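Chain entry —
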Amino acid sequence: PGLRQDRALELLTRCYHPDPRESDELGELPLWGEEFERLAVTMDTARRAGSVRRGLQRMLRHGTTHLAGLLDAEDPALRTAVSRSGLVRVPPSPARSGPPDLDPFAAGGDLARTAGAPLAVGGRADLAVFDVPDEAALRAGGTRACVATVLAGRLVHRAR
């Protein structure tokens, strides 16, 4: 099954996901905390919307198929991007501290706790494919081993 991202709201509203054209200046990893606050002061609507879309794309690259939390906030960029993404929304999970991570396993937990929903014959096909031999290797190596993510039977991410 695909994975549930418990920190989706933070990753999309409290982090900036740099555009590849900004990598020389900002790097490639999401910026949060003080770095985010410095950027947020001057961020316009288009730049903010781009960050949200890139954040969702990066979640798909980590096998995320379900987003936990209240993502129908007043922020139109967030609401629009999440509704267009095809990702399944699920109720919020208990709050966590520390920096949010694109890897759903970063907060600990096994596949049963981190899976978005069980796969069922005739049900919605939300799944992720990882290039690892077993669950232990997936948890040890993280979700960067994701080679494909499928939402409702549609391939939305494929590693090159």
